[in-house]
Amino acid sequence: MQRSDQIEFCQCELVLPLRVLHFANAIVKTPTVKIQLSKFNQSNEAMGRKIIYLVRHGQTAYAETQPKDAHGYLTELGRQQAHLAAKRLAQLPITSIHHSDLKRATETAELIAKQLPHVPLHSTALLRECIPCVPSRPLAWAANLSPEKVQENQQRLEYVFAHYFAATEDREEYDVLVCHGNILRYLICRALQVSPEAWINADIHNCGISEVLIETDGRTMLISHNDTGHLPYAMRTFL
């Protein structure tokens, strides 16, 4: 029995390398495979793409003295969060930064821009915080929403999505959008092609970063959501 086992084992050892060698020779002798891969790589290199980095503003405080600051300002922790987000984004080939003109988002964007001094910075009221649409689950505060105001918000955010998430054909873009939790959650739902009313079922930390890829044909893919790897656990907040 021992002798038979040894013979069979030796036969297996001899047959296996021959099969591998035969397979390897078949690949080497098939030039069409190399040509097809070459064409595929060339088409990928020629392809433009767009990646959007969605950043929520840093931790915010609101003045209690009159006149109250209705739009808030960054706390010291919020500034530290923005600084760490800036260091993270500075490692990427960012081409532009767009931000809400509300103070908490403006301060966050300006701190990020310090790490990216050659990247243009654009302020816009289009990215102001709002209730994007009536949420999918019933909430007490949603009952007080004005239908006219909700419709106005929806129209604005539809334009935001169509404008900032538009595909590029012949160039690469890496854009940063610094704004607010409600808007970011809504835009992520749109990118995922799920019901926008589901925005209430997600959340984003202060200075959390979400990444969306826009293909040349307009298709969108969520690469990551609420990435906080740049923030120590003790610095992760939702305010």
Protein described:
This protein has 239 residues and is of the alpha/beta class. It has 2 domains: 2-43; 48-235, Phosphoglycerate mutase-like (Rossmann fold). 41% of the residues lie in helices and 17% in strands. The protein is built from 6 helices and 8 strands. It has helices spanning 2-28, 31-46, 76-89, 103-114, 147-164, 181-192, and strands at 50-56, 60-61, 73-74, 96-100, 121-124, 173-179, 209-214, 220-227. The strands form 2 sheets. The chain has a 6-stranded mixed β-sheet, sandwiched between helices. Strands 2-3 form a two-stranded antiparallel sheet. Strand 4 (96-100), helix 4 (103-114) and strand 5 form a beta-alpha-beta unit. Helix 3 (76-89) packs across helix 4 (103-114). The longest helix has 27 residues, at 2-28. It is globular.
